[in-house]
Design brief:
Layout: E1 2-5, E2 12-16, H1 22-33, H2 35-38, E3 49-50, H3 56-64, E4 68-75, E5 78-88, E6 91-99, H4 108-124, E7 128-134, H5 138-146, E8 150-157, E9 167-168, E10 174-181
Parallel strand pairs: 6-7
Antiparallel strand pairs: 1-2, 2-4, 3-9, 4-5, 5-6, 7-10, 8-10
């Protein structure tokens, strides 16, 4: 478990999620990205996608995969955020990032991503963090750019027809690879 870090909304505790956390992580991710509850935060994708963002099996896959960590971030004992770190050679992949909508916008996400970057460097000696973001999420891409990530222009198709990733409301969805040097 990572030492707690002070935050105006309470102490933060970073720990590796377990299989027992899978449903709570799904609930958190869904609340941040899908449906009406996500609209109270700024990370919503409800205008782009219906259906689910993740499911219990996808969370378990991340928890159980070698070279993968799913960080559960708790605030005063309550799951408040999560993120995935995956070792990919000289890079780490950052994904499944969610912050409970009611606490978004207060600097919590900025602190979490900085801690995740440090943990990836310490755990795997990686030189770069990578992530993929829907290109339609210009506001989110701009937020990551302010954190030092850069757009690569490398585009990846959205998995149309696979409802495990949501039901698209648009026909032009794709992901872009963002990268940040860590050393």
């Amino acid at each position: 478990m990572e030492p707690t870090a002070p935050h105006p909304l309470g102490e933060l505790t970073f720990r590796d999620a377990t299989a027992a956390d899978a449903q709570a992580v799904v609930d958190l991710v869904e609340s941040a990205y899908r449906g009406d509850s996500s609209r109270t935060g700024w990370t919503t994708e409800a205008h782009l996608l219906d259906g689910q963002r993740t499911d219990v099996q996808a969370v378990l896959d991340v928890v159980e995969a070698p070279g993968s960590r799913l960080l559960a971030i708790e605030q005063d004992g309550r799951l408040t955020a999560c993120c995935q770190l995956e070792h990919r050679g000289e890079a780490a992949y950052f994904g499944m990032f969610a912050v409970r909508p009611g606490v978004q916008g207060g600097g919590l996400g900025r602190r979490i991503i900085a801690t995740a970057e440090r943990m990836a460097c310490e755990s795997w000696c990686v030189r770069e963090m990578q992530m993929t973001v829907l290109t339609a999420r210009e506001d989110l891409i701009a937020w990551y750019e302010r954190r030092g990530y850069r757009r690569t222009g490398k585009l990846l198709p959205f998995p149309y027809g696979d409802e495990r990733f949501g039901i698209p409301r648009r026909a032009d969805l794709e992901f872009e690879l963002l990268v940040k040097p860590l050393v």
